[in-house]
Amino acid sequence: MKLNDAVLGTIFVLIALVVLFQARTFPTLPNQPYGPGTFPAIVACIMLLCGGGLILNGVRSRDPVLVLSGWIRTPGAAGRMTAMVAFVVLYILFSKQIGFPLLVPVLLTALLWVMQVRLSMAVPIALLTTGAIWMLFSKLLMVPLPLGLLTEVIY
Amino acid sequence: MDGTLLAGFAQVLQPGVFLIILGASAYGLLIGSIPGLTATMGTALLVPLTFFLDPIPAIGAIVAATTTAIFAGDIPGALLRIPGTPASAAYTDEAYKMRQNGQVELALGVNLMCSTIGGLVGVAILIIAAPQIARFSLGFSSYEYFFLAILGLSCAILVSNGPRIKGVLSLCAGLMLSTIGIDVVMGIRRFTFGDSELIGGISIIPVLIGMFAITEILRKAAAPSDLPPTPPLRLRAAVSGVMGTLWKYKGGVARSSLMGSAIGALPGAGADIASWVAFALAKKFSREPEKFGTGHPEGIVSASSANNAALSGAYVPSLVFGIPGDTITAILIGVLLMKGITPGPMVFVMDTGLVNAIFAVFILANLLMLPLGLVAITASRHLLSVRQKILFPIILLFCVIGAFAANNTLFDVWVLLVLGLVAFVLEENDFPLAPMILALILGPLIEENFMKSVIKADGNLLEFFSRPIAGTLGFITFAIWGLMLVLSLRRHFMTSRRGNTAT
């Protein structure tokens, strides 16, 4: 997934401009021109220069805007990568309501299934992993993993 | 070996700590021998667990896991011609040729022995050099620290592969991330965009896991590949003949171990660069360079000593100045900071117990690697038969829970995902990630010392060069910048001239 240098250069330049703009609003030390904005502003200036250089490179190279790397053309590659991202997003959105012990086996089974693991293997693996992680983090390390729907059942 | 080092051993050999080191060593062997799981990623995955440990077992776990991981990277290299970690890539072809010559056990036995020797030489240098440098640097003021940190970052750009301009941008991105949250000078909120979660700054654990684990998971998800089966290996063949080979190339072992530690100590240059350089030097100094590429152990001996030596060498600047020597020590410094320990020369004065325990951990981890490594060689068939399609979803779950666990907030899981995706895109476009992580760790240090210096100097920038050491460091920094500028201009000039003659 190789983008033309100009695209990434533009993103860096935009970030640098936002930072420069924000840094101007910060107060300075009494009687000195320096303050909390000094350091970010210096970094933003370097970023602006290099981002500009990158844009020049990209425009001069006349590379296409986006070149797909070889691996992304492997059958199902995009789907599997999306599934990985979806796994994280779904966990963030639903772990609190549904709870770790109910949500994770379902999500993990689904993810393994997307990775072409047979269901007869995916389900036990998902259950075992969930149990192991629960023991490690919730029981041993005392991390409050959310119980969700099970809260009322247990308490 | 004085009494204080013995005291260090006494701390490390407590049953609880020892078990953690043993477990981490085994974990490192697993991580290293599975292609796609690098030593840095293994360290990042350990961080959420170390969060809950005392400083000494936490450091012990990281040191032990990375030591064995760098060795274990040689196993799939020799067997399948796929390096387990980037540090083994330099001699993968050579080792695979040895397999084709029926000498795979000898190759792995030599790898193991050299890794141990290189590691121990690196530790010896760490033990001798670090306290001396620390004593020397006790008088450093904010000027010196500012320049040291800048020097470290410049060095990271100099040695990073890929275009320098992208290295600098990656560095700026890391510095930028480090400025989010309450500032060090006046305590105002910066770049929080009204989000209360951002006031405390971006927490380091999800960033680390995102950058080093999520990127790898995404790549593997795109093209999962199960490894072909490998033959069973015999233990006897991996032990006999090793000593003879080592003795034959003892000069190479010594040279590469010393050079490896020196390269490791350079910020940004780690085990992988050390092993490439050592391999090239071995070929240059060899009496029989024509044998290289035919399954000749000489280069393997040198390079596999160098990569483990680099691992220990990286701890010299990390412990003495708090400036990481590679990505692994960058993570380690992050862990130490979370535990309220600021690495620096004062640690050598105030906390000698901790320093000696770290030394002891290194020696122990390298010694443990011998028996465990032999087990890993004989069990390599099973290690390599782990199904990647199953492994990577499980690692992903572990990443998510690990990112959540440090602060018990789902916001950190967002950070994990976003940084992971950003790092993935950057890496796909040849941006090196090492400068970014170094900058993220060093950012607060640089800003604090810069602001202190500027305020002390009352805005007079020449004050930065008024002290002899600071002036020297500043001069070296500018020299490196000049060198980089000349190098990139020359490359630019050469390519444009070549372009002209072609048309």
Automatic annotation (TrEMBL), chain A:
<dbReference type="Pfam" id="PF07331">
    <property type="entry name" value="TctB"/>
</dbReference>
<feature type="transmembrane region" description="Helical">
    <location>
        <begin position="71"/>
        <end position="92"/>
    </location>
</feature>
<keyword id="KW-1133">Transmembrane helix</keyword>
<feature type="transmembrane region" description="Helical">
    <location>
        <begin position="39"/>
        <end position="59"/>
    </location>
</feature>
<feature type="transmembrane region" description="Helical">
    <location>
        <begin position="122"/>
        <end position="142"/>
    </location>
</feature>
<dbReference type="InterPro" id="IPR009936">
    <property type="entry name" value="DUF1468"/>
</dbReference>
<feature type="transmembrane region" description="Helical">
    <location>
        <begin position="98"/>
        <end position="115"/>
    </location>
</feature>
<protein>
    <submittedName>
        <fullName>Tripartite tricarboxylate transporter TctB family protein</fullName>
    </submittedName>
</protein>
<keyword id="KW-0472">Membrane</keyword>
<keyword id="KW-0812">Transmembrane</keyword>
<feature type="domain" description="DUF1468">
    <location>
        <begin position="7"/>
        <end position="146"/>
    </location>
</feature>
Automatic annotation (TrEMBL), chain B:
<feature type="transmembrane region" description="Helical">
    <location>
        <begin position="167"/>
        <end position="186"/>
    </location>
</feature>
<feature type="domain" description="DUF112">
    <location>
        <begin position="19"/>
        <end position="438"/>
    </location>
</feature>
<feature type="transmembrane region" description="Helical">
    <location>
        <begin position="12"/>
        <end position="32"/>
    </location>
</feature>
<dbReference type="InterPro" id="IPR002823">
    <property type="entry name" value="DUF112_TM"/>
</dbReference>
<feature type="transmembrane region" description="Helical">
    <location>
        <begin position="357"/>
        <end position="379"/>
    </location>
</feature>
<feature type="transmembrane region" description="Helical">
    <location>
        <begin position="314"/>
        <end position="337"/>
    </location>
</feature>
<feature type="transmembrane region" description="Helical">
    <location>
        <begin position="142"/>
        <end position="161"/>
    </location>
</feature>
<feature type="transmembrane region" description="Helical">
    <location>
        <begin position="391"/>
        <end position="424"/>
    </location>
</feature>
<dbReference type="Pfam" id="PF01970">
    <property type="entry name" value="TctA"/>
</dbReference>
<keyword id="KW-0812">Transmembrane</keyword>
<feature type="transmembrane region" description="Helical">
    <location>
        <begin position="469"/>
        <end position="489"/>
    </location>
</feature>
<keyword id="KW-1133">Transmembrane helix</keyword>
<protein>
    <submittedName>
        <fullName>TctA family transporter</fullName>
    </submittedName>
</protein>
<feature type="transmembrane region" description="Helical">
    <location>
        <begin position="106"/>
        <end position="130"/>
    </location>
</feature>
<feature type="transmembrane region" description="Helical">
    <location>
        <begin position="44"/>
        <end position="71"/>
    </location>
</feature>
<keyword id="KW-0472">Membrane</keyword>
<feature type="transmembrane region" description="Helical">
    <location>
        <begin position="198"/>
        <end position="218"/>
    </location>
</feature>
